[in-house]
Automatic annotation (TrEMBL), chain A:
It comes from Loktanella atrilutea. Residues 1-23 form the signal peptide. Residues 20-313 form the PBP domain. The keyword Signal applies. This is Phosphate ABC transporter substrate-binding protein, PhoT family. Pfam families: PBP_like_2.
Automatic annotation (TrEMBL), chain B:
Keywords: Cell membrane, Membrane, Transmembrane, Transmembrane helix, Transport. GO terms for biological process: phosphate ion transmembrane transport. It is found in: Cell inner membrane; Cell membrane. One of its GO terms (molecular function) is phosphate transmembrane transporter activity. CDD domains: TM_PBP2. It is a multi-pass membrane protein. One of its GO terms (cellular component) is plasma membrane. Belongs to the binding-protein-dependent transport system permease family. CysTW subfamily. The keyword Membrane applies. PANTHER family: PHOSPHATE TRANSPORT SYSTEM PERMEASE PROTEIN PSTA, PHOSPHATE TRANSPORT SYSTEM PERMEASE PROTEIN PSTA-RELATED. Coiled coil: none annotated. This is Phosphate transport system permease protein PstA.
């Protein structure tokens, strides 16, 4: 065969590829979104593929915002069917969805996730924190004698005499993570109010509450607080290399690494699935996934997957998700019937 | 002062010394590169070699009809109602029986004994039973995966001290594992499943394999080869042999060189916009991945092909033209065959580069959790249209997982990828050595 023939046939194959592929369809559920929800979605997808005649759903991560953005791109086989999110969908995102024709969205709450504060197991004894400790340690500016000054604290025992004598070195989630918002609201802002700093700031700025909140949640940038833009494995690596480091982790990540990390109580409450379910542990948040109802019926297995996810076998208190670290939702039965009825938002 | 050829003068000595110093610098440079390479390889191999060995538990699993087939008619619809959650207690019973038969004493509860078996094992048994319904009724011997922590213990990743702190295992379980191994119920075997099995969820690191990723990478390489080689070679031949040398061809040449240096993520953005959003190809499919990587590989192939064509001496072309061949005959009968080894080398190096690329695949949905083997062709999804992952993507995915056992898997995957790259680069060098002509 001469070279010309080879070249011609190769080009013919190329052309054929293009035509054949143009008739593509899809028979699997496509999911994207939060990296916090990802391990749970993986566990459910795996069990779903094992036990049902549908193909195993394909799960991508990339973050809640990225997932919801793709979810809202439109209706059709080349858009995702489900977006995982570690926060509720925003109004602006719903508007985008509606503008692109994604009008029927089912919101499914799968349970709760705890955010824990952990340090090296052999490191200094960080065993009890309060939100006020974290605010005083990490705020960019603190109110001192009626004026805002740059945070002077460099050691945990300057923040609180009960804390160990160790330099402040905190590894917190970067701003693109949903976890960061929860951390700011439930730890830093709470600590700002608890420590009385909020009132002082309000006196200083003349009662502007929005500005006071913003000032509370401004994190110092002098190197004592490090934003981690990657995931918890990166935080763990930093903690491994830094005996004084304290990191912010998801409860499930901590539970898989209890031989390397020790966890601290927050406001005197030990983080566990029980204390989070009861609401005693203050730093937790609900996890969600959003289903494009318009795809039910077109994409095989979509509704079955959603129902299987919230079934007692999976998301119940004794299911594999709870075993992995998800805090089971006490109102799971309501969610189950809402999914069965395809109730939209 | 007399001059002698036997004793070097000061200037010659200086020149010789400079040369010796230069050689030493060169040797030092190579030395540093080698040390870096050795450190990298040792770290990868020591951490990753464990992925190629795996702990298995061999037990007789009871398969009672009352549990697995309530109808007693071997009706598939009834049998498939029993999920893996229903199978798990049977495996536990099998292991408990085996422990009792071997006369091993343990204080662990039955549930804790069950934790020694991987969660994947229930699926193994269920699939076999559904494929062979006649197995139901009597116990059947299975080789089941052991839990990741137990496997880690035999590989040295988990120790008694770390197990005492670990919520997912305990020193008593490791102790029992030691006894099971002595009794021959637990064995360590070569882990073929690592190369063939699909990915597994975060609860089953012991079951995770590269099967889907290797298939996905293979499909993508086929697409890259089929698209990039003919287009690249045709473009190079035209530019090198036929195109007039003017401002336009200069502009094209600069642009090709530029494209070769564009960050690969840019091709991903392009792929998302054109192939997925505009042309409506499937996300996560090797076809789109291959097309994106083909775009990325094209400049490499064009540049190396042009260099290979340029290296063929003009006398060959002149001779062909001189005996009456047309321009096209001279190119296809004489120049191209002589340039072929260079073209192949460039193509293989381009493919090797594409094989190790992750960034563009991020945007087209290939960085995903995929369990089903992609088919090369299916009527529903078309050619190479099934979702799949790729080798570098799998490494990236595994490094993000919480369970420490995935570190070993990720390093094992790096070893696999390095072996593939080594093979491709060796082939490139062998081809060049064997067929290269010098003039």
């Amino acid at each position: 065969m001469s070279f010309m023939k080879i070249a011609t046939s190769a080009l013919a194959i190329t052309a054929a590829t293009a035509t054949v592929a143009a008739a593509q369809g899809r028979d699997n559920v496509q999911i994207a979104g939060s990296s916090t929800v990802l391990p749970y979605a993986n566990i459910v997808a795996e069990a779903f593929g094992e036990n049902f005649d549908f193909p195993t759903p394909v799960v991508e991560s990339g973050g809640s915002s990225a997932g919801l953005k793709r979810f809202c791109e439109g209706v059709g086989e080349n858009t995702v069917d489900i977006a995982n999110a570690s926060r509720p969908i925003k109004d602006s995102e719903r508007e985008t969805c509606t503008a692109n024709g994604v009008t029927d969205i089912m919101e499914v709450r799968i349970g709760y996730d705890g955010i824990v504060f952990a340090s090296q197991i052999d490191g200094p004894a960080f065993t009890a924190f309060t939100p006020a400790d974290w605010y005083t340690a990490l705020a960019a500016e603190l109110p001192v004698d009626g004026a805002m000054v740059a945070n002077p604290n460099g050691n945990w025992n300057e923040v609180n005499g009960d804390l160990p004598d160790a330099d402040i070195m905190a590894f917190i989630p970067g701003t693109k993570h949903g976890t960061r918002e929860v951390f700011e609201e439930k730890v830093i802002l709470q600590g700002c109010e608890d420590s009385g700093a909020m009132e002082q700031i309000l006196t200083i700025n003349g009662g502007d509450e929005d500005a006071a909140e913003a000032s509370c949640m401004a994190i110092r940038t002098d190197g004592m607080s490090v934003d981690i833009d990657g995931d918890y494995t990166e935080t763990l690596a930093r903690i491994d290399a830094n005996p004084n480091g304290v990191g912010v982790f998801g409860l499930s990540f901590y539970e898989n690494n209890t031989d390397k990390l020790k966890v601290a109580t927050m406001g005197g409450v030990e983080p566990s699935t029980e204390t989070i379910a009861s609401g005693d542990y203050p730093v937790s948040r609900p996890l969600f996934f959003y289903v494009k109802k318009q795809h039910i019926g077109t994409i095989p297995g979509l509704k079955e997957y959603a129902e299987f996810f919230v079934s007692d076998d999976m998301a119940g208190p004794d299911g594999p998700l709870a075993e992995y670290g998800l805090v089971s939702d006490p109102e799971l039965a309501t969610t189950q019937s809402a999914v069965a009825d395809e109730t939209t938002m | 002062m007399t001059k002698s050829l036997y004793s070097a003068d000061a200037r010659t000595k200086r020149r010789n010394a400079a040369e010796r110093r230069f050689k030493a610098y060169g040797a030092a440079a190579i030395g540093i590169a080698m040390v870096a390479l050795v450190i990298l390889l040792t770290s990868v191999v020591t951490q990753g070699i464990g992925a190629f060995r795996q702990t298995y538990i061999t037990v007789d699993v009871p398969l009672p009809e009352a549990k697995l087939d309530k109808s007693g008619t071997r009706d598939m619809a009834v049998m498939s109602k029993v999920t893996t959650i229903g199978y798990a207690p049977l495996l536990r019973d099998g292991l408990v029986n085996a422990i009792a038969e071997a006369g091993i004493q343990t204080d662990l509860s039955e549930k804790e004994i069950g934790d020694l078996i991987s969660k994947e094992a229930a699926a193994t048994v269920r699939n076999r039973v559904l494929a062979h319904p006649d197995l139901i009724g009597q116990p059947e011997r299975f080789s089941l995966l052991a839990d990741g922590r137990i496997d880690g213990y035999f590989k040295g990743r988990v120790t008694m001290a770390s197990a005492a702190l670990d919520q997912n295992t305990s020193p008593e379980k490791l102790d029992l594992a030691d006894k099971l191994r002595d009794a021959g119920i637990m064995q360590i075997k070569f882990n073929w499943a690592f190369l063939t099995a699909p990915d597994a969820s975060d609860q089953r690191p012991e079951a995770a394999g590269l099967g889907v990723a290797i298939l996905g990478s293979l499909y993508m390489m086929i697409v890259v080869l089929v698209l990039a080689l003919p287009i690249g070679v045709a473009a190079s031949i035209y530019l090198e042999e036929f195109a007039p040398k003017n401002r336009w061809t200069d502009v094209i040449e600069v642009n090709i060189a530029n494209l070769a240096a564009v960050p690969s993520i840019v091709y991903g953005i392009l792929g998302l916009a054109i192939f997925i959003n505009f042309m409506q190809f499937n996300q996560s499919s090797p076809l789109v991945g291959g097309m994106v990587l083909a775009l990325m590989t094209l400049p490499t192939i064009i540049i190396s092909t042009r260099a290979a064509l340029k290296a063929v001496p003009p006398s060959i072309r002149d001779a062909a033209l001189g005996v009456g061949a047309s321009k096209m005959q001279s190119v296809f009968h004489h120049v191209l065959p002589l340039a072929a080894p260079g073209i192949l080398t460039g193509t293989i190096i381009g493919l090797a580069q594409a094989l190790g690329e992750t960034a563009p695949l991020l945007l087209i949905g290939m960085v995903a959790f995929v369990r089903d083997y992609p088919e090369a062709y299916s009527s529903a999804t078309g050619l190479f249209g099934d979702p799949s992952t790729a080798l570098p993507v799998q490494i990236y995915n595994w490094t993000q997982r919480a369970d420490p056992a995935f570190v070993e898997r990720a390093q094992g995957a790096i070893i696999t990828l390095l072996v593939f790259l080594l093979i491709m680069n060796t082939v490139a060098i062998v081809l060049r050595r064997r067929f290269e002509r010098r003039w």
